[in-house]
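Hi there. Long-time user, first ticket. I'm pasting a complex I've been working with (about 305 residues overall). I'd like to know whether the download I got is complete or cut off, because the file seemed smaller than I expected. Thanks.
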Amino acid sequence: MSPASVTLPTTAESVLPLVLQAMSRTPDARLRELMASLTSHLHAFILETRVTEEEFERAVKFIIDIGQATDEKTNEVILAADLLGVSSLVAILNNPAPHASHDAHAQEEAASHAALLGPFWRANAPFCQAGDNIARGNTLGTPLDVRGVVYDKHGQPLAGATVDVWHASPVGLYENQDDAQENMNLRGRFKTDAHGAYHFKTVRPAGYPVPTHGPCGDLLRAQLRHPNRPAHLHFMVSTPGHKVLITQVFADGDANLTSDPVFGVTAPLVGQFEERLIDGRPQANLTQDFHLVEGEMHFPHPPIP
Ligand code: BEZ
Ligand code: FE
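Hi, the file is complete. Here it is re-exported in full:
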């Protein structure tokens, strides 16, 4: 046997060991582990499904297309991860929301469930005063009053925590998707008071379709999947010494709670939106507390500027 014959692939199955060998000296141990596992799964997938050259070309084109469809208004790469359930999987895996401890010494409260960030968070929403209305300009809709308390893992209120909120309008569009809305409409950051409480006013958001004009829309159509997310508010709750909680609160009763195209809904994240008539006009209220866990305060990279 010549020396070359042990280092050159002879069959489809013989490529992987050579690739793993080539990557095996990667000094960064975590990169080495991730790339070895990813490559192994990719090879297994290609062998199992017998991917054709045309299908490989199509996959490369999809990746190029989601990159090229990403700009300062939309992030098609994140959307692709969302539609595959990958964003929700990473959020749930890394924020397991353990149950409240029954250990009398620990006295730990259950952490809030996390949910995917989505493509529409902007990092610099205006700081607002408690009770401010984030429905700016002429945003028409059912008034919604939102309040709650931010707690630490012992159930103690956290004063001075930041509650960053963003949501779609009553016609189902984020301000960056809609020229009719003011810059930063339906976005704001609130500080909790000495009792850990936050409070803001807004209008009830509508459910909306995820963007379908790009390659991800083509994929949804090819899979006969609907694009409609249930109505929700996004929250990012942070304070030093605690893990940043990224989550969403969904409108109870929404028809799409069990068919969210990005798999973001978990049972504790369905909020109780109380709606009643005051002087003949609807008024909605939502009370939503948040429970943080200790950890590093790390913010995600904003999907759009
Ligand atoms: C959102 O909730 O903002 C969102 C999440 C995933 C895809 C599109 C939008
Ligand atoms: Fe959203």
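A couple of notes from our side: Helices lie at 15-23, 29-49, 53-68, 76-83, 86-94, 215-222. Confidence is low (pLDDT under 50) at residues 100-106.
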